[in-house]
Amino acid sequence: MSLGPHASFIVVAYIATALVVAGLLIWIVRDYAVQRRILSDLESRGIKRRSQREDRV
Predict the structure, then answer these.
(1) What residue spans of the chain are helical by DSSP H?
(2) Tens digits of per-residue pLDDT, 11-25?
(3) Residues near 43 by Cβ (< 8 Å), separated by ≥ 6?
(4) Residue ranges for the chain with pLDDT beneath 50
(5) Residues with Cβ < 8 Å from 12, sequence gap 6 or more?
(6) Cα separations (Å) of 4 from 15, 25, 31, 38?
(7) Is the C-alpha dihedral spanning 34, 36, 41, 46 positive or negative?
(8) pLDDT value at residue 2
């Protein structure tokens, strides 16, 4: 398969895109873990989520 005279640009663009997407995925996974930890800490201190109120009708 020949990519023509712009092969190096195409390959570098795909690699850069893959790195950016991988970085975003890592960031999302880490942020999710942090948010779960914060939520767990708040719940252990007795702070409830509004969506879990029992006084709803």
Answers:
(1) 7-44
(2) 999 999 999 999 999
(3) 49
(4) none
(5) none
(6) 18, 32, 41, 51
(7) positive
(8) 82
